[in-house]
Write a structure and sequence with these properties.
alpha/beta; TIM Barrel; six-stranded parallel β-sheet; two-stranded parallel sheet; binds zinc ion
């Protein structure tokens, strides 16, 4: 019992640190979204960095099985390579977001080059959603992009790309309506993202609806 309570406290603490981090970042980027309005009782799964033939079909199949919708933040260079996969995402009723063309780090890229990279991706990804790679934007980049995009950050990121990340022991307790969750749609992460998504679906789909973030309206 003692042990269980300690575990619970630790989980609550971790979630509260994540929420505090989001609040801090929210002060830097006041129009960016770290959560969605909770009123719909929906949770928002998002998958970054795809599409890719080794991962996207598996995620689409899993989402279809659970009748869940999600948002895929795609890289323009991957959409160019795999346009058929991009169309499958849309045809399955999911939404897509612009995640840049080549995944630049905003802190190390001039605003001009950064915007050119995002514009190039906009040529193949039709959406009003943008998520900066690594969550990194300079204030200048942010000011320009927020005029054209809903900047979608996240409530909680699952580091499926990290070798030590184990979906079996990852505690996903504390998910609440309006939360935006991040995983990845790449060959190296799909096993873990698949396992974790399955786990989240099996434990929370009775409680919550899993919806896509609307991609053709300005949210603010
Ligand atoms: Zn990314």
């Amino acid at each position: 019992m003692q042990h269980k309570e300690e575990t619970l406290n630790r989980v609550t603490l971790r979630t509260s640190i994540a929420r505090k981090g989001a609040t801090l970042a929210g002060q830097l980027f006041p129009g960016a979204r770290f959560t969605m309005p909770p009123d719909d009782g929906a949770v928002y799964l998002t998958f970054d960095d795809g599409p890719h033939p080794e991962s996207t079909p598996r995620l689409l199949e899993l989402l279809a099985k659970h009748e869940a919708k999600a948002t895929f933040f795609c890289l323009g260079q991957n959409v160019e390579k795999y346009p058929g996969l991009y169309e499958q995402i849309i045809a399955a009723g999911h939404s897509t977001g612009n995640h840049s063309w080549s995944h630049p780090n905003g802190w190390r890229t001039t605003t001009r080059n950064y915007l050119a990279d995002v514009d190039r991706a906009a040529g193949v990804i039709d959406t009003n959603l943008f998520r900066p790679p690594y969550g990194r934007l300079t204030p200048g980049q942010y000011q320009k992009l927020k005029k054209r995009y809903n900047i979608i950050m996240w409530t909680r990121l699952f580091p499926d790309y990290h070798p030590g990340f184990n979906p079996a022991t990852t505690n996903h307790a504390g998910i609440r309506p309006g939360d935006i969750l991040v995983m990845h749609d790449t060959p190296g992460t799909v096993d873990k993202a698949h396992m974790l998504t399955e786990k989240i679906q099996n434990t929370t789909r009775q409680q919550y609806v899993f919806s896509e973030i609307p991609s053709f309206q300005m949210l603010q």
